[in-house]
Write a structure and sequence with these properties.
alpha+beta
Length: 255
Amino acid sequence: MAIVKRPKQLKLIENLYAGPNEFWYEDGRPFEGEYHMYDKAVKYYFEGPKWVSRPVAIVPEQTTEFSDPMSVDYTYTNRQRMKLEFEKKTIKGPATIIPQATAKQIDKGIITRFLVVQLNTGQVYEVDEDQYKKYKKSGNPYNKNYNVAKIDWKITGPLFSVYNVQGFAIQDGIYETNLQSIRIILEDLPQLSPLLSNPLLFTMPTAENDLYSDGSFLYLDGQRYVGNYHIHPAKGPMIGSIHTSATHSQLKILL
């Protein structure tokens, strides 16, 4: 954008500073340093602390064309074909969320978790349903760099399955149910393992007291725990036969 005259009708803001990964030049190079901007209906950003004639433009979002190897190839191919109207988008990567169970989901005892893996980096994300649908669309060439999955996640009920005297399960446990779901997902997308390492995550198990661990539970630092434990409905398995006001550690299950 060529601006040769100091514009009086625009709101000029000078002496600003951009840190790493905040702005880029229009050719994809990163920008860091002092800049100024014009703030009207659309914001324009330029290199340098003060207004100058013909300032160099910078942009607050790096274009996908320069940020992703697959997009670079896509852009190059279309340029070689002299197809100048090729799709060009700005980076809007997956935004991580923490699932929040609704009252209806708590009554049902199940939530659905939505997961995304970025193939070129291996980065994994827990996302909402809208993002899951967005990255699942096969018509967008940029989505080829992402795989998605969803998993039904048991959040209420006993921590472990309950069996009758004949040995038949009469109530499915959170641990066994979620562990089975995890194994199915990881067969196809093992990259998602960092998000699925804890089958008790986001759960609210039925409270129980006076239980015993033979070493199948671990301290949070990974050491095996042998001894009495109880199940807290919000914190899960914890050291001690019953819950008290004294400080006592949570436990995790040995997978």
